[in-house]
Amino acid sequence: MCPKPQLAKLGLFDAKVPRYTSYPTAPHFGAEIDSGDFASWLGDIQPESQISLYLHIPFCRRLCWFCACRTQGTRSDGDLSAYLDVLKQEISLLKSHLPPDVSLSRVHFGGGTPTILPPEMIRDLTGAIADLAPLAPGGEFSVEIDPNEFDQQRCDAFLQAGMNRASIGVQDFDGTIQQAIGRIQGYQLTHETVEMLRTGGVRNLSADILFGLPHQTKARITKSIEQLLSLAPDRIALYGYAHVPWMARRQTMIPTETLPTPEDRLELFDTAKALLMWDGFEEIGIDHFARPQDSLAQARNSGQLRRNFQGYTDDPAEVLIGLGASAISRLPQGYAQNAPSTAAYMSEIRQGHLATARGHAFQGDDRLRARLIEMLMCEFRISVTEITRQFPHAASQLPGLFAKAQQAFPGMVEVTQEGLSITHAARPLTRMIARSFDAYGLASSGHSSAI
């Protein structure tokens, strides 16, 4: 690990940079991409292809103060039913644009709170997905689960639909921290949820935990990590809490003075990382950890690791289609995002239109830079051989791009004939180094802390 003074000199504790779950990043999407473009892109999907689906369920019974996702509170199942009807209509619209015999590489239910749906709605929605296309052999059906909104009936409904991976949001088990972020979720409840899933046959279990939360200390994150490890997850996402109250107004409920400093955030991450590595987890990219037998670790080892809006993935499909309000699709031609507002999204679909409101068509060297950044984020290196195989014209561009990164981060990156690599000690700087390969300006809306 680089000494803190050196990291500070390079700007780690002051910088705000993208997380690079896409390139260009979503703030650079524009209204020039509409439903006609998206329909055209869908029409280019080849028969018998594998595609992936992301379904966005934006509703929550309560709004957690730390969350910056596009969500809305509801107490009524009527809101859920109306949204579900529109989501099924969107699935029907999608089917009319897809070629025959496609199959699903991945199905992911995200939110919001997907498990807010009652069992009968889960069956209804997953039935519509089954009518769209079958899950491919070896495909993954994953669901983000809130233990506060989960029971045996919901579990059974998802299991019957083919759920084979569950992702549980933990954030932190400490009571003081939970009070501060508006997310009350006891360890015992989480343990019971895990037991329910394991008993039902779910063999792949992921969990999310945050560092950088209010009142979080090394002792508190140590205890929470130890509790999390007792649940025996196969994969853990260790995300940094992004405090962006100018984008997520609910975060104003969290007093800034209760947050750890950037230097303390790094110590919290290193503390959690050391515990996970000691327990046998392997480091995956900048913020994921996995057991050696987990498919994410295997993808990392084989060079197949990828990065998308859900973080790191081993999904081989070139097409990811987002369904629901604000959901983003990625196709070989570019990105298409549905209307962010639930009301606007539902209005478009009810009129029989795809709900694309904005997006980005790849142009110039977007694909090259996207792959360079993805390699850094996934592998901490860029291989000249691999890049020039995919982009033969890139050979003349790489020396200049490498020199720019090396000049900005002296001693932190190594350049050889084989390519560029980030030194192990400099990995906390990965997002900043990736930024040096980004041709777009920083979004005016701002980004989260680099650590």
Globally, the shape reads: globular
Helix fraction? 25-40%
What is the overall pLDDT average?
Answer: 95
What is the number of beta strands?
19
Computed structural class: alpha/beta
Note the main sheet: 9 strands, mixed
User: Radius of gyration, rounded?
Assistant: 21 Å
What percent strand?
15-25%
Unreliable stretches, pLDDT < 50, 5 or more residues?
Answer: none
Q: Could you give the order of strands across the largest sheet?
A: 9-10-8-7-6-5-4-1-13
| End-to-end separation | 14 Å
Number of helices: 15
Descriptive account of the structure:
With 451 residues, the chain is of the alpha/beta class. It is 36% helix and 21% strand. The protein contains 15 helices and 19 strands. The strands form five sheets. The chain has a nine-stranded mixed beta sheet with strand order 9-10-8-7-6-5-4-1-13, sandwiched between helices. Strands 14-15-16 form a three-stranded antiparallel beta sheet, covered by helices on one side. A three-stranded antiparallel beta sheet has the order 17-19-18. Helix 3 packs parallel to helix 4 and helix 8 (218-229) packs parallel to helix 9. The chain is globular and about 55 Å long. The two termini are 14 Å apart. The model has no long low-confidence stretch (mean pLDDT 95).
Short structural description:
With about 450 residues, the chain is an alpha/beta fold. Helices cover about 35% and strands about 20% of the residues. Helix 3 runs parallel beside helix 4, helix 3 packs across helix 11 (about 340-350) and helix 8 packs parallel to helix 9 (about 260-280).
